[in-house]
């Protein structure tokens, strides 16, 4: 049986983002994918760690595609809007943990935490650059970038707890303009 690699990675992502790294077992993966453990090891000889790394790489591709919007031509507002648009959550993913959640808790932190630190530093730097292009000082731009990421991640968690995504959608709509408010 031929395995569609992209579909398999999407199935793996759902398991890791539903149960976290520590809660993801080969039994859960097998149940989600319909593949036996032997078939999974054929696809991923490194087992769960390799599967998690492949999912993280795919998530990184998605994330860096979003960051590219911050580097494209346009006004800072247009670049921020493009970034937010690219990273809006598909409704099917709303009950899943964020990539930062999955890869910074438990055993995953030791294995993948450095990747999450690097991704966070890139996220901050990319937002900071756009804000500096708008005329904010480096210090002010960095603080706004950190606040924005905290708001995005925190609001996502709160919305998952409340099972109400209006706050998240409102944040995504308002955040570009809020980041560019002149008071620092």
UniProtKB/TrEMBL annotation:
The entry's keywords: DNA-binding, Transcription, Transcription regulation
Pfam families named among the record's database cross-references: TetR_C_13_2, TetR_N
Domain HTH tetR-type: 2-62
Coiled-coil region(s): none
DNA-binding segment(s): 25-44
GO-annotated molecular function: DNA binding
Alphabetized InterPro entries for the sequence: Homeodomain-like_sf, HTH_TetR, Tet_transcr_reg_TetR-rel_C_sf, YxaF_TetR_C
PANTHER family, alphabetized: HTH-TYPE TRANSCRIPTIONAL REGULATOR LMRA, TRANSCRIPTIONAL REGULATORY PROTEIN
Gene3D superfamilies xrefs: Tetracycline Repressor, domain 2
Keyword Lyase among record annotations: no
Protein name, entry field: TetR/AcrR family transcriptional regulator
Organism: Leeia aquatica
